[in-house]
Amino acid sequence: MSNRSIAIAHPDIGPAEREAVMNVMSTGGLAQGPQVAALEERFAGYIGTKHAVAVNSGTAALHAALLAHGVGPGDEVITSSFSFIASGNSVLYTGARPVFVDIGPDFNIDPGLVEAAITSKTKAILPVHLFGQPCDMGPLLALAEKYGLAVVEDACQAHGSDYYGKRTGSFGTGCFSFYPTKNMTTGEGGMITTDDAGVAEAARLLRAHGMKVRYYHDTLGYNYRMTDLGAAIGLCQLDKLDSYNARRSANAARLTAGLSSVKGLVTPDIGPGRTHVFHQYTIRLTAEFAVPRDALVEKLAQRGIGSGVYYPVPIHLQKLYKDLGYDAALPATERAAAEVLSLPVHPQVGEADDAYIVETIKEISNG
């Protein structure tokens, strides 16, 4: 056993966040208020959209964004099965049906397979910018324009990433998560970003029980509000996001340099024109690697190195979806689920940690 401990995730909450929370608490106004409004304004500016609407989770952001685009019963939404289950469930919440398309080597939806999945029922494309790398948005936007489809970006893991200089979350309607393990956090929380004033207004109604005026309800809504406590944390975190992402990228570069020669191990594939912000640093372990994935996880843990499998069961193979009749074969997705392993890359990881991770994996691979 090792005395070293390198967690797979470690939220960075410091004095600035604690002071910001205490300042909000001293006002007595803890619910949605001026801190939320300030975070919305600053986050919209950061992403490069006209509007941002704060909600209480990334899942709420996806649900409200889809509803704001009119997605409902009888509709279909094309997305990826290789994601956290919220990417599919948010479609189910609307009464629509998720249609899953296979992935490419970047773990994101394969644009070349999307057009074949479009039907007369298709209402939207929901690309997932998985692990912090943008999808290949060019062909997806072309298909959306050709068929008159909405684009709802699941950018829950991609804060600050960009595609040919344009931030994810600004191509269509963006959805972000501020869960503690994400590149920035509000404790729990989410954000919808858009240039469409109508979508923004619909999202604001949906997050607050359909109210424009208090106790006057214009439509069916939900309690998806963010607190000022969370927003105060988020404002501090947004100040640090670029530096956080730079540290993640530096860690990823060192890991790739050290691991790219290991037999049976495939380091992350980054597509052209993309800035990857490495919410996760995810390798693939093929049959040529020295030990099975579960054995590597155990050996890393014995040496104080955390790791995680994201995601061991694709959405379309979850019991919920099998019970709904999903039986499509998605070979690239299923292969990825059997091979992926994420290693620590968060900002608390240092250069010595990277060297230790590389050294340990090489030792394991050499028996």
Describe the structure.
By secondary structure, the chain is an alpha/beta fold. It folds into two domains: 222 residues, Type I PLP-dependent aspartate aminotransferase-like (Major domain) (Aspartate Aminotransferase, domain 2, 3-Layer(aba) Sandwich); 126 residues, Aspartate Aminotransferase, domain 1. It contains eleven helices and 15 strands. The strands form four sheets. It has a seven-stranded mixed β-sheet with strand order 1-9-8-5-4-2-3, with helices on both faces. Helix 5 links the parallel strand 4 and strand 5. Helix 1 packs antiparallel against helix 7, helix 3 crosses helix 4 and helix 3 crosses helix 6. The mean pLDDT is 97.
Topology pattern, helix = H, strand = E? HHEHEHEEHEEEEEHEEHEEEHHHEH
Principal-axes shape call: globular
> Number of folding domains?
2
Put simply, the count of helices is: 11
- Order of strands in the sheet with the most strands? 1-9-8-5-4-2-3
Structural class: alpha/beta
Q: What is the straight-line distance between the termini? A: 17 Å
- CATH superfamily membership of the largest domain, which one? Type I PLP-dependent aspartate aminotransferase-like (Major domain)
Relative helix content? 25-40%
Radius of gyration: 21 Å
Strand content: 15-25%
* Count of individual beta strands: 15
The CATH topology of the largest domain comes to: Aspartate Aminotransferase, domain 2
Low-confidence stretches: none
Produce the secondary structure layout:
Blueprint (H helix, E strand, L loop, with lengths): L14 H13 L6 H14 L3 E5 L2 H11 L7 E5 L5 H8 L3 E5 L20 E5 L10 H11 L2 E5 L7 E2 L2 E2 L5 E5 L12 E5 L2 H11 L3 E3 L2 E2 L10 H32 L5 E2 L7 E2 L5 E5 L7 H10 L16 H5 L7 H9 E4 L7 H15 L2
Parallel strand pairs: 2-3, 2-4, 4-5, 5-8
Antiparallel strand pairs: 1-9, 6-7, 6-13, 8-9, 10-11, 12-14, 14-15
Helix pairs in contact: 1-7, 2-7, 3-4, 3-6, 7-11
